[in-house]
Specification:
Radius of gyration: 17 Å
Keywords: Membrane, Transmembrane, Transmembrane helix
InterPro entries: DUF6867
Number of helices: 3
Largest sheet: none
Protein name: DUF6867 domain-containing protein
Structural class: mainly alpha
Number of strands: 0
Number of domains: 1
Pfam family, one: DUF6867
Length: about 110
């Protein structure tokens, strides 16, 4: 698994930087984009930048490779998935609050 998803000596570093730090930033970014009623595709350019920021943290703190297209793609894919999940969750809550009268009561809890 090492070498395919992460470059560092420890899987914990990948979890800390990509999933915890990058994931938290991605969740907040996806949520913010949804709260301003922007379309879902606006998440993609934001996550391209955040993917580079995550790669820079790997480089600056843990001596990872900065300009590695493969690891950049892995980091960007992870943060994009988290951001899209946050976008979907927030948009769902917005739609229920805004247009709840259109939903059958049994479907609100689904």
């Amino acid at each position: 698994m090492q070498g395919l998803l992460y470059q560092e000596d420890s899987f914990g570093i990948f979890l800390l930087v990509t999933l915890v730090l990058g994931g938290a930033g991605a969740w907040l970014s996806g949520r913010a984009i949804a709260r301003t009623w922007r379309p879902w595709w606006m998440v993609l350019p934001a996550m391209l930048l955040l993917g580079f920021a995550v790669r820079f943290i790997h480089f600056a703190l843990f001596e990872g490779t900065l300009m590695s297209p493969w690891y950049y793609a892995v980091d960007t894919t992870v943060v994009t998935a988290v951001a899209l999940a946050a976008f979907r969750s927030t948009r769902r809550r917005q739609m229920i609050r805004q247009y709840g009268f259109l939903i059958i009561p049994a479907e609100r809890d689904a």
